[in-house]
Amino acid sequence: MKSKKSFDVIVVGAGAAGVGVGMALKRVGVESMLLLERGAVGESFRRWPEEMRFITPSFTSNAVGLVDLNAVHPSTSPAFSLEEEHPGGRQYAQYLDAVVRYTDLPVRTGVDVRSIALKNNGFSLETNGGAYSARFVVWAAGEFQYPHKGGFTGAEHCVHNTKVDSWRSWKGESIAVIGGYESGIDAAWHLSRAGKSVVVIDPAGPWKKRGESDPSLVLSPYTMARFRQMEAQHPEGLVRFIAEKVQRVDALNGQFIIRTQTLDIPTDSRPVLATGFKGSLTLIRDLLAWDSAENFPVLTQAADESTRTPGLFICGPMVRHRTANGMAILCFIYKFRMRFALIAATIASRMQLDTSPLSEYDDTNMVLRDLATCCGSGCSC
Ligand SMILES: Cc1cc2nc3c(=O)[nH]c(=O)nc-3n(C[C@H](O)[C@H](O)[C@H](O)COP(=O)(O)OP(=O)(O)OC[C@H]3O[C@@H](n4cnc5c(N)ncnc54)[C@H](O)[C@@H]3O)c2cc1C
User: Fold this and answer.
1) Does residue 95 sit in the same domain as residue 135?
2) Residue 92 CA to ligand 1 centre (angstroms)
């Protein structure tokens, strides 16, 4: 098994999406399958800043048909395994690891997929450990390890929030956080609790947005509650929120100056970029058709298969679709898990396998077929 490199299905990535879709593929009896993972199972979650927690709550509600929001399979629950409502990244990686071990999901770690090409009615995957081949590929390499690094002059003086090990041990007393969605408010929360002076800068002023129920569009209830606490606890301005665009960052003698349209904001430590992600699809861009206006991959609505390259499926927070009601954005686990069974059913049908074991996903409301019933038009992670 160790040296085998040819499979019916290869899943790239063993995060929430990869493990979840891998479980669904296993349920329909795909035997020749492998997950390729560049780090360890749940690698992105292992890299979360130590203090970062899930914003979507976990709860032991599976028994009444309400599957834990952060579960990747209907009969598992991170709340049950971890005894936490808002697990940290390392804890969630433990949950994924347990799912993999308990179900014998085949994962090969330390394998970095660098590119994919079409070959002999299937795919050839170039990796640091040689070439692999598969008839079907599910791309589940996520976004976290492919950060968006600002795009303004002086962004190189900043540090992306995905590179921070811990907010508690941050050196410096004054910090600018550039980006005010979930990651930015999370950074501000932990830095302010460590007694730092924090300014959060975002032209969209996400903390002011109301009237939407989709957490892909506005801050989640968990994060809004933190925002309100910061406002209430720091009326003297230790934590400030500024709805302006950063135009440049200058570094002068160990100081940093963040320049917006109307303000020059000095800090004594590197600004934090909470500017989101380019995402892993950059590696397989040519195998996908792209929506020219919004720059997302055009996939089949039935099963998130590439409309340019049949046999290649995308699974995870990068998936979005235009619908009659706007956009369906699947950027949380409780959303993108609703496509696991559809991807598995499509692959199983082409392999002439029985898809009936997937009824457990329907029975537990873990399938989203009608995308028009989902979501809004941006992602706030
Ligand atoms: C601040 C913040 C808070 C969030 N909170 C929540 C939340 O509360 N609830 C929620 O549902 N979502 C939350 N999210 C989003 C959540 O992190 C993602 O939805 C989730 O991690 C996506 O899972 P994934 O498996 O697609 O990606 P990842 O977890 O990134 O997994 C991808 C895996 O692929 C591997 N990989 C990457 N590239 C390659 C390659 N080339 N070759 C081989 N392997 C590769 C990686 O090592 C990784 O293990 C949050 C995100 C952020 C930034």
Assistant:
1) yes
2) 11
300-359 residue pLDDT tens: 999 999 999 999 999 999 999 999 888 899 989 999 999 999 999 999 999 999 999 999
Domain span at residue 67? 6-145+277-373
Residues 18 and 125 grouped into a single domain: yes
Q: Ligand 1, closest atom to CA 16? A: 25
Is 315 a domain residue?
yes
Q: Ligand 1 — pocket residues by CB below 6 A? A: 12-18, 36-39, 43-45, 52, 54-56, 112-113, 140-142, 144-145, 182-183, 186, 280, 283, 316-317, 331-334, 381
Which candidate, 45, 37, 109, 35, places its Cα nearest to that of 82? Answer: 45
On whether both 263 and 190 belong to a single domain, the answer is yes
Task: For residues 7 and 116, give the distance between their C-alpha atoms in angstroms, rounded to a whole number.
Answer: 14
**In a shared domain, residues 269 and 281:** no
Q: Is residue 381 part of a domain?
A: no
Domain tally for the chain?
Answer: 2
Q: Pick the residue whose CA is nearest to atom 12 on ligand 1.
A: 332
Identify which of 320, 339, 20, 49 has the alpha carbon closest to the alpha carbon of residue 182: 49
How far apart are the CA of 334 and the centre of ligand 1, in A? 13
Determine the pLDDT at residue 379.
62
Q: What is the pTM of this model?
A: 0.95
Q: Which residue has the tokens 């640091």?
A: 128
248 close to 176: Cβ distance less than 8 angstroms: no
Over residues 82-129, the pLDDT tens digits come to 999 999 999 999 999 999 999 999 999 999 999 999 998 899 999 999
